[in-house]
């Protein structure tokens, strides 16, 4: 356990260094945009990992909660003139309530039936967002006002001063998203390394074992479902403000699949791993874009091959390799 | 009033029969390997697209159908051999992602070979619809239902009367025991994927004149098949057929009487409702957890 | 003296087959009470009924006078009943220590707020839990695994770890389902010693076991099941001289 706490801080520190080092290497606003998107999506993936990676419950509809958060903020701020933070908070509370109401019955389901039910919930949310044109703008989406804090606006197109330095709106947004991601990771790690986290992981390890020592497994499954939905909602809301525009695609099945793929690809149950998953899966289409028509084929192929040969995900596989090598060299010394 | 109802019923049963065939494909693979194959819909797409493009090249219809079905069968075997078999110890979610990767890959190939356009396939027989009590019945619907019924009959025969069919069933019940009595379970798994692909491609071909076809129709069809299989109870052949038909009819009624925008929402609400009361679907096996 | 566990006319049928039929007995606080019988006699089913994993077809189970047949396993744990399993239920995704700390679940007072922000109350709580878990791991003889992953432990050590986890919940009664299965003679002797030490702390022990020597040596009373029914009940001496038991075990 002492190691776990140490590892926790180390992971957070490395992540912080990487996040704040990125601006040293990129200058292009497009790249900032990409990095900001990745950071916000990674935040949602960190939340999803609590559910999938630690508690072992599958969700194929998580984009639904991302979309709900995004649209709640979009509608309340842009149509009704709310300030961004109360919109985000009220949206998150609303999503938490929805997730709790929906989660109670469906989390009794096991395996593929749970996948099916979460998929259905995600689909229903996306269909509603698509069809309630008067409120959501329908399939074409709707514009969203910039994020604001007590009248002070954060826009990718603005100019700001930070510690006496002039910085562009792109950079400001990126730093903001980076800090949000760090907070998301810190909270997630605190949760995992705690009695609640143990209870969650025991639901994955052995649900009966958990129940006979007093863990109310139904309650903890609902709890982690709600927490991961709130993560998605908050990140969705920020994403909407950042993009300045939302479409129902962010609530759709494809995006749900992308989110869970990020978790599995990076390494279920590894907070840093799933962030790597998010980075890889967001960058891959950019790298493949040059191949034009071949993009889809290559994307599918890479996804398939990675999962076949690294079923535990990128980071755990790499960590295992490293550990083996270290053991080997340690053995050589003796 | 009645003719309207009948019209929706025809539409529902036709599309429901297609869902049932997809669901049967899911069931076959699920029984043999406990994998939910998210690439199932691609078999339909390949069946339809290959038939369209072959006939366009001047290949006679019947030969085109045979070739398309063979192509899908090969694809099914390849999927099992190259993607599922090497990952046999992977987590459930990992397997899901692998089949999703496979479906993106197949879709990508289809898009390369056949392009992104919608393709139209002619009805197998007359374009003149049949009038039944004021409702119109597309002749192709009869093809879908007829072929569906024949396939189900063949499957029933295959699983109850042939040794290969029984071997697949035995493997699905207990892999180790099946291996002990000399069944080559890897071959059985391959067969299950192949049969499932054959089913899917035939469904894809007969329904193509009704739905049109394009490289990306597999996603939503595959998902509907999964919904149908889950309604019926994963692993139950009977459940797949009932689930498929029920889903088709409910969808058509929802589209007709409520709103076509919300027909998919009704379908997905239906699965939630079913699972709420029957956590293992209509005909799903009841399992007592052993500890 | 009232019974700690009271079982009245308990039956459980699986699709018409009676796994447990009309079983009645009672266990008094402080006893070591064993359930024996041939394979398939319904011993584990009986344990599953008592611990809330199964709902009985008919009959009643009382813990401290309160009927428990409608309660979930976690609610029984809250009332002081914990158990281990014939097929061990260890969380292999956690460390050995975390498995035992999981047993402290009910005694910890952390909430979401103290957890998310890692407030001092949580750290204090965790420190105490870790100390208690360490003590228990040493008590059951898993002291060498304090920093091990559960997946790296031997079979025998895992069986003891499961007992430590059950004890971590500070139960009034523990049910051990075939704790000696798969253990060698030395390990079994250690287990016998461990059960005695647990009983000496005033914890009631219920045992399903095949090892007759172990059972006869440590039990205060025994229940013999055969085809789901009670064949005999009594002290080890009574059981040893019971003609039905002798017929079932030797003549069967």
Overview of this protein structure:
- The complex is a heterotrimer of chains A (334), B (291) and C (252).
- Chain A has 334 residues and is mainly alpha-helical.
- Chain A has a single domain, classed as ABC transporter involved in vitamin B12 uptake, BtuC, CATH 1.10.3470.
- Chain A contains 14 helices and 6 strands.
- In chain A, the strands form 3 sheets. A two-stranded antiparallel sheet of chain A has the order 1-6. A two-stranded antiparallel sheet of chain A has the order 2-3.
- In chain A, β4 and β5 form a beta hairpin.
- In chain A, α2 packs parallel to α7 and α2 packs across α12.
- Chain A is globular.
- With 291 residues, chain B is mainly alpha-helical.
- Chain B has a single domain, classed as Orthogonal Bundle (ABC transporter involved in vitamin B12 uptake, BtuC), CATH 1.10.3470.
- Chain B has 11 helices and 2 strands.
- A two-stranded antiparallel ribbon of chain B has the order 1-2.
- In chain B, β1 and β2 form a beta hairpin.
- In chain B, α2 runs antiparallel to α3, α2 packs across α8 and α3 packs across α8.
- The longest helix of chain B is centred in the N-terminal third of the chain and has 32 residues.
- In chain C, α3 packs across α5 and α3 runs parallel beside α6.
- With 252 residues, chain C is of the alpha/beta class.
- Chain C folds into 2 domains: 139 residues, Rossmann fold (3-Layer(aba) Sandwich), CATH 3.40.50.300; 87 residues, Rossmann fold, CATH 3.40.50.300.
- Chain C is globular.
- Chain C has 10 helices and 10 strands.
- Chains in contact: A-B, A-C, B-C.
Write the layout of secondary structure elements.
The complex is a heterotrimer of chains A (334), B (291) and C (252).
Chain A lengths: L1 H24 L3 H26 L8 H17 L4 H23 L4 H21 L1 H4 L5 E2 L3 E3 L2 E3 L4 E4 L2 E4 H24 L2 H11 L1 H6 L4 H27 L1 E2 L6 H14 L4 H18 L6 H15 L4 H20 L1
Chain B lengths: L1 H32 L6 H17 L4 H24 L7 H23 L15 E3 L2 E3 L1 H23 L1 H11 L1 H6 L4 H27 L6 H15 L4 H22 L4 H15 L14
Antiparallel strand pairs in B: 1-2
Helix pairs in contact in B: 1-5, 1-6, 1-8, 1-9, 1-10, 2-3, 2-4, 2-8, 2-9, 3-8, 5-6, 5-8, 6-8, 9-10, 9-11, 10-11
Chain C lengths: L2 E12 L2 E12 L3 E5 L6 H8 L7 E6 L2 E2 L5 H6 L2 E3 L12 H7 L9 H5 L3 H21 L14 H14 L4 E5 L7 H16 L3 E5 L3 H7 L2 E6 L2 E6 L1 H5 L2 H9 L1
Parallel strand pairs in C: 3-8, 3-9, 6-7, 7-8
Antiparallel strand pairs in C: 1-2, 1-4, 4-5, 9-10
